[in-house]
Amino acid sequence: MKYVLVSGGVISGVGKGIIASSTGLLLKTRGLKVTMIKIDPYMNIDAGTMAPTEHGECFVLDDGGETDLDLGNYERYLNITLSRDHNITTGKIYQHVIDRERRGDYLGKTVQIVPHLTDALQEWFMRVARLHVDETKAQPDVCVIELGGTVGDIENAPFVEALRQLRRKAGAGNFLHIHVSMIPVINEEQKTKPTQQTIKDVRSAGLNPDLIACRCKDRLMASTIDKVAMFCQVETEQVVAVHDVPSTYHVPMVLEKQGLITSLTKILNLDKLEIPSKLKLRGATTWEMWKSSTSVQHHSQIVTIALVGKYTSFADSYISVIKALEHSAMFCRRKLNLVMVDSSHLEEDDGNTSSIESQKAWEILRKADGILVPGGFGTRGTEGMIVATRYARINKVPFLGVCLGMQIAVIEYARTICKIPGASSKEFDDQAIDPVIIFMPEVDSKSMGATMRLGMRPTHFQPGTGWSQMRGMYRNSPVAASRDTSDGLVIHERHRHRFEVNPAYVPKLASNGLNFVGKDDQGERMEVLELKDHPWFVGVQFHPEYLTKVLEPSRPYLGFFAASAGCLKEVMEKLQSDKGVVEN
Ligand SMILES: *[C@@H]1O[C@H](CO)[C@@H](O)[C@H](O)[C@H]1NC(C)=O
Ligand SMILES: *[C@@H]1O[C@H](CO)[C@@H](O)[C@H](O)[C@H]1NC(C)=O
Ligand SMILES: *[C@@H]1O[C@H](CO)[C@@H](O)[C@H](O)[C@H]1NC(C)=O
């Protein structure tokens, strides 16, 4: 096993995560199997309980692990599947050591940070690095470890010590350390002092970076690079300049231009590894696909998608949704123009008599090529979402409702078409006369408690749904692990919700034309709804955005986006003709 450590200094938020994922991607383009671990020096054990406003989006893994956006980034860049163990926190490792102490594993010895905690950390890294991360089930060749926080913090000292020891254990040629620093520009001068200082800190902690990645808003001047090299006692080749680029998808190309592949090959002795031939998909290698998909298209058609939600000022809460749309736009070679509409401004139906804010919101909505209602909790703004959904349904504007968004579509349909004016969700109104959405917990056999439905679950497309555009989109989807069995198409997506369509109302909804084309394996939970005679009107109870990949956009999003762009037919044809071919 080879390890790449990515640490950071000066200040946090300099883009360590993107550099770590991009390094992983470059290793992958060499044909290596890459996995990633994130170290978060927090005391928390689970991100699920943290407020989205404080923490950004909660990202869900196959195993139901709730983490934050970094693991999502790794999965999307590298097209891999991680588990909750790929995120290690101070809280998790302390709990692990304390549990062992309680069980008497340490034979009554005094348990200390060094060696007990640091040993436990190394064991964790070595165990988790070996876990397979894709369908080939093969052990990865390289593990990229991103150390959160900045080196020198009190918080990450035990991790730094464990990594120092891991480096020794792995041996020469098996460990590479990239330290990410920042070069501020003051009065047009690129300042290297903070970098010199952080390198000093890292060295005094016992680590010695092989590469210093310097983040800077501009391109680094040759004299700056020389200065960093001289004052930090490294060769100029060891200084990697990473200037700001218009899109984070371009960072791998910036790193490649800096010769990172050569450095990786040399320091990690990659020439000595047996590397299998590269997989070609759609006639191109991963790297060729990456470069062409992410290249800037100046003249491409602009597609406007309105995201109708709450927390609209916190784009962070919808990161995966936004990524899924970006990936879809790249696939369709269109430019995404994402506009956020606060649903509470849509509550007055006509928008003629109402406030300026409401008029503006309606104007944006009317101009959109597609309308998306994402997931969320609570009642605020839900009436506005219902109105937006009705607008999309009646005016044949492509629509995607995700989780809460699907439930909104059901409520709207029940009220308008099925003539059930009191239709609502138990989540918004505990006393609802016609609760078309109810609390449907999953019974957890371990804790014997009712829990949130969390993680990967199958969805079965129902017999007689051959007409379904969603079904068409899912055929051959490698990421959602779709299988065409004798009894139809089965797909797998990640869930995170408590409320669902009330089965008691399904017959009435269905007989009025709301088609539940996908259900769970018991046929009790409604997973996918779709309208006929509409360019694209789809609701999904799961969160397909958690599985989107840069080069494999989530299929429901891709279908929705393509319908909004007017190229759904071409996209479907392209997907059907796709086959992975092995390059010789
Ligand atoms: C890892 O877990 C901790 C605690 O649950 C959480 O705060 C952190 O955001 C998670 N990190 C990642 C990368 O998911
Ligand atoms: C609101 O204005 C639009 C366009 O000006 C018009 O078509 C619509 O009928 C108006 N609605 C009401 C309720 O007056
Ligand atoms: C992504 O991974 C899946 C499953 O491991 C694989 O079938 C697919 O071809 C990969 N896609 C790309 C673009 O590498």
What's the main sheet like? Answer: 10 strands, mixed
Strand proportion? 15-25%
The N- and C-terminal alpha carbons lie at a distance of 26 Å
Bound molecules: 2-acetamido-2-deoxy-beta-D-glucopyranose
What is the spatial order of strands in the main beta sheet?
15-14-16-17-28-27-26-22-24-23
How is the quaternary structure best described? single chain
The helix content is 25-40%
What structural class do helix, strand and pairing data support?
alpha/beta
Helical segment count: 19
- What is the averaged pLDDT score? 89
Rg is 25 Å
Shape: globular
Residue windows where pLDDT falls under 50 for at least 5 positions = 580-584
Number of strands: 29
Organism: Cadophora malorum
Pathway: Pyrimidine metabolism; CTP biosynthesis via de novo pathway; CTP from UDP: step 2/2
GO molecular function, one term: CTP synthase activity
Domain CTP synthase N-terminal: 2-270
Characteristics:
single chain; about 575 residues; 7-stranded parallel sheet; 29 strands; disordered C terminus; binds 2-acetamido-2-deoxy-beta-D-glucopyranose; CTP synthase activity; nucleotide-binding; GATASE
Characterise the protein shown here.
The chain is of the alpha/beta class and 584 residues long. It is built from 19 helices and 29 strands. The strands form 7 sheets. The protein has a 10-stranded mixed beta sheet, sandwiched between helices. A 7-stranded parallel beta sheet has the order 5-2-6-1-7-10-11, with helices on both faces. Helix 1 packs parallel to helix 3, helix 5 (113-130) crosses helix 6 (157-170) and helix 14 (382-394) crosses helix 15. The protein is globular, with a radius of gyration of 25 Å. The two termini are 26 Å apart. Mean pLDDT is 89; it is low at 580-584. One 2-acetamido-2-deoxy-beta-D-glucopyranose binds next to strand 2, helix 3 and strand 5. Residues 2-270 form the CTP synthase N-terminal domain.
